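Quick one: structure tokens for this chain, please?
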Amino acid sequence: MALMESAARVAWPPAVEVFGDCSWRPTSSDHAVVDMRGEIDAFAIPSLARCVDEAIAAGHGHVVLDLADIDFIDSSEPVQKIAPGR
């Protein structure tokens, strides 16, 4: 919670990239938050992976997944499919 509170106070231009039900926003020069809405299942994994990859490619080495608006997570989908090797 403290990370999210401190990230909210950082003055950084929030350029938002959107991929389907997933988007990411920078919170500092090396931190980003990936927001996801709806469900995380086999169909959502590619969109979520693109968001994470895009944030990392933009130079944000620390990526936080904000799952506050997630209604359902399919537990059969391993996290390894989202960010393999990370």
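The chain has two helices and four strands.
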